[in-house]
Amino acid sequence: MSKINCQTPSLFLLSSEGVFLGLQLVLYDATIYVRLSKEDGDKVESDSILNQKELIRDYLKSMPDIRICLESVDDGYRNFDFLCPSFIRMMEDIKVGTINHVVVKDFSRFGRNDIEVRKYFDQVFPFWGVRFISVNDRYNSILKRTSSDVLICPI
Fold first, then answer.
1. Of 45, 75, 88, 109, which residue is 20 to 30 A from 55 by alpha carbon distance?
2. Residue 74 domain-assigned?
3. With b meaning 16 or more CB within 10 Å and e meaning fewer, what string describes 101-125?
4. Which positions ≥6 away from 97 have C-beta within 8 Å?
5. DSSP 112
6. For residue 79, what are the domain limits?
7. Which pLDDT does position 72 carry in this prediction?
8. Is the backbone of residue 74 left (phi > 0), alpha (psi -120 to 50) or beta?
């Protein structure tokens, strides 16, 4: 897990020549949460983990109000019971206010227990004021949902 200092409320915008262009407000300090169920041989970090990070980073490039402050990586864990080490640390960071946004590749990377996953989306994250995005599922918790929207989580 790698952390970035996210105590500053804004970012300096600089031109390619280094000229100050102004400030940009950052509303969300995010963690990228990536997970893979099986260890990938003797590599320090599996290819799938790297691919998940890249996909999320590419997606977030178009969202200037989100700053990536933390990468939470559980490589080799199923996360059926939400007891993975990085997941636990991520939730601790949410509780103390270090981060207020979680981004995953898809729902299955967040967790494998559909009932518990829904509990996080419907109760835990709203209670802590956390925004949640699942890139491939096109889910963004701050977007208004209609009665015809259905959140489907793979099992």
1. 88
2. yes
3. bbbbbbbbbbbbbeebbeebbeeeb
4. none
5. S
6. 26-140
7. 95
8. beta
CATH number of residue 86's parent domain: 3.40.50.1390
Structure tokens at 48: 């799938």
Checking if the pLDDT of 55 tops 70, the result is: yes
**What is this structure's pTM?**
0.76
- 60, with CB counted inside 10 A (0-12, 13-18, 19+), is buried
Please count the structural domains in the chain.
1
pLDDT over 90 percentage in the chain? 50
Position 111 in a domain? yes
User: What is the residue-averaged pLDDT of the chain?
Assistant: 82
11: which residues sit within 8 A by CB, 6+ positions away?
23, 24, 26, 67
